[in-house]
Amino acid sequence: MGVFKRAIIGKDGGKHEYWYIDYVLDGKRKWESVGQVGTVNKEHAKKLLAHRKTEILQGKYNAPKPKVIPTFSEFAKEYLEFAMGNKKSWDRDMYALRSLEPFFGNYKLTDISPILIEKYKLERKQTVSTRTVNIELSLLRRMFNLAVSWDKCKSNPVHKVRLFKESPPKERILTLDEEKALLESSPSHLKPVLITALNTGMRYGELLDLTWNDVDFDSGYIHVRQSKSGKSRKIPMNETVRETLIELESENFVSNSVSSDPIGEEKTSNYRIVKHDTRWIQDPVGESSWGFKSPLRHHFSPVCTTMLGRCGIL
Q1: Are residues 79 and 110 in the same domain?
Q2: Residues 15 and 77 in one domain
Q3: I want to staple 144 with a disulfide (CB 3.0 to 4.6 A). Which of 14, 156, 162, 259 is the partner?
Q4: Are 142 and 87 in a shared domain?
Q5: pLDDT for 65-93, tens place per residue?
């Protein structure tokens, strides 16, 4: 055990000398920095070494344990637990993690660099759209922000990675003939959902979370308790929606068991069927399939405008 000086290269690129003490703890040799030469002197180092010896003999000194840095897979489990308790859209994060984890899983958080993320970004682009890559990188950025705040790592490498530029999505609005064809070609269990979507403009998640407590036939409104913005709102029911929901009242497509918080809730079979079958719907003119969210909600506003125009209001 002793006192010695050691040169360290600083952030400025220059060499700086520091005083160190050297002692044995639990059978292992330890070095401890005392301070920079000039700021502290050899006497300070000797006094600290003597103090450490006394603490070790008395069994009072426990050297600070090095911080354990988790791998991406280990932190992903922690993040998902957090997301399930704090985000309604946690399932989207789970799907994105299925792509991120095979690539980053075995790396410690501190070993994931901007260059490594760029490699993932370019490789992933070969198999999916740039929008999908951006969604996955956005999740990665959120995860690292959380890791920094939880003191799992010191910085977020995703901040130095640029997302792909995306073209504005093409708005898909159904014509009246396409709307008719869509409803005629859809299975019976989807028609109430589609009719409600086409006539209210409700979001996908809002429809799946709808309960009978949210449907007020007396006032003629549907109550959205938790919207994307976090605010509640009321949506008027037209006669088509009203008649459709009255017919459904004894069935389970709108169910009090379908909670707005899916964690730990047992979903009805109808809920699961509707959620699965509405993810991708065949284009009514047979060109392709598209996500439930894109055309149906955007269809609502132009239809209202058209109807107001026909009535001479606009």
Answers
A1: yes
A2: no
A3: 156
A4: yes
A5: 667 899 999 999 999 999 998 887 888 89
What tokens appear for 78 in the block?
């922690």
Q: State the Cα–Cα distance between residues 78 and 72, nearest whole angstrom.
A: 10
Statement to judge: residues 199 and 266 lie in one domain: yes
For 245, counting Cβ atoms within 10 Å of its Cβ (0-12 exposed, 13-18 middle, 19+ buried), the class is: buried
Residues 29 and 149 in one domain: no
- Cβ pair 23, 38 in contact under 8 A: no
* Structure tokens given for 26: 């639990």
Element (H, E) at 233: strand 233-236
Name the pairing type of β-strands 15-25 and 28-36.
Answer: antiparallel
Give residue 240's domain range: 176-310
Confidence band for 115, pLDDT divided at 50, 70 and 90: very high
Q: Is the pLDDT of residue 117 over 80?
A: yes
**Plot region of 312 (φ>0 → left; ψ -120 to 50 → alpha; else → beta):** left
Same-domain check for residues 90 and 156: yes
User: In 3D, which of 294, 262, 297, 261 has the Cα closest to residue 279?
Assistant: 294
In this prediction, residue 207 carries a pLDDT of 81
Q: 3-state DSSP call for residue 36?
A: strand
pTM of the model: 0.53
Q: What is the DSSP secondary structure assignment for residue 262, as one 8-state letter?
A: -
Together in a domain, 183 and 281: yes
